Amino acid sequence: MKKRGFNLSWGGSAVRKSQSAKSVEISRAVCLTPFHYGVAYLIKRVYRKLNLAGLAVGAVIPDIEAPIAIAYLIWIRGISLQSVLTEINPRTFYVLHVPLYGIPLATGLGVLAVVAVYRPVVMRMLRMKAVPEELTLSPNLVVSVFVGVVSHLLVDALHHSYNPLLKPFYTGSVDVLVLFGNQPLADLIVQTVCAALTIAVVVMELLKGREGLRRLALGW
Ligand SMILES: [Zn+2]
Q: Of 12, 73, 152, 175, which is most buried with the most CB atoms under 10 A?
């Protein structure tokens, strides 16, 4: 079902894509989410006092709204999946990707996710009986989730086709951070670098065995 007189179109940038290219972009964007972990790990390498669990969860939590936005469009707005994949950009409905209110909101959600989800999963995975210090609520955890969220929004702004950086004051896409001003090229570069970085650190740590798994989940 098409909605008329309602600005749901893609991007707003000069880039005009074919429908199949738009579909590919959605699937790519979804695929990138776990690869934000590599950036979180890198930040931990540089700022060792930060909490890797917080950084990692903060670096992926904003994308929790991607399936929610798509479900909202299909089930609440009654728009077909076909239209969602080809004509409508779910990103125009994003909240957590809007810096002004998305950063504090995603930080709060991220802290909650560390304590309520990440903690039991990691403790079970690492067969821990006592709650490790890294997974207890602390100012450092909150700051680390915050930094992770900011890193996510920054990485996205380097290559996304729709960047609501100035919402709610300006609803168009602010593409000043898109690499080389060339969104498809930026997309390719950022996805490749983030994927290579994440795969490299995960493999490097897992080669250390159980200790590597602990380092990946909780840091060092
Ligand atoms: Zn994102």
A: 152
CA of 157 to the centre of ligand 1 (A): 9
Give this prediction's pTM: 0.83
Q: How far apart are CA 8 and CA 89, in angstroms?
A: 6
Nearest to 118 by CA among 98, 128, 50: 128
**Cα of 9 to ligand 1 centre, how many Å?**
18
What sign does the dihedral 28-196-43-205 (CA atoms) show?
positive
94 contacts 73 by C-beta, under 8 angstroms: no
C-alpha of residue 128 to centroid of ligand 1, in Å: 31
The conformation of residue 2, written as its DSSP 8-state character, comes to P
* Extents of the domains making up the chain: 19-218
Q: Give alpha helix (H) positions in 72-209.
A: 81-86, 99-113, 119-125, 139-157, 183-206
pLDDT in tens, 170-219: 999 999 999 999 999 999 999 999 999 999 999 999 999 889 999 999 99
